[in-house]
Design a protein that fits this description.
Pfam families: YtzH. The chain contains five helices and no strands. By secondary structure, the protein is mostly helical. It is globular.
Length: 92
């Protein structure tokens, strides 16, 4: 059963929050972030402002899965993670 739009947003928010508070992410989490963002970008309910934010999150996921130091990657994105979590919270 496919996830509903709001469920996908909630899952994305949860993953980003986990990265922010845990200080690292796994390769499978970064891959899941990419899949969620791709699915949300294809959804007609998503407006252009949200798509812009999703593109930034996609780059975060893409870059994160190729780095050896996951903690450093998350540390470099702390401000963005806080901003993205807040913005996603306003979407639903």
């Amino acid at each position: 059963m496919p996830l509903h739009y709001t469920d996908q947003l909630q899952l994305l928010k949860d993953l980003l929050e986990d990265h922010k508070f845990d200080g690292f992410g796994t390769i499978s989490e970064y891959e899941q972030i990419e899949r969620l963002v791709k699915s949300l970008m294809a959804n007609e309910q998503v407006d252009e402002q949200t798509k812009f934010i999703l593109q930034e999150i996609y780059r975060y996921g893409q870059n994160g899965k190729y780095l050896r130091n996951a903690a450093e990657h998350v540390e470099n994105y702390q401000n963005e993670l806080t901003e993205w979590v807040d913005q996603i919270g306003h979407f639903f």
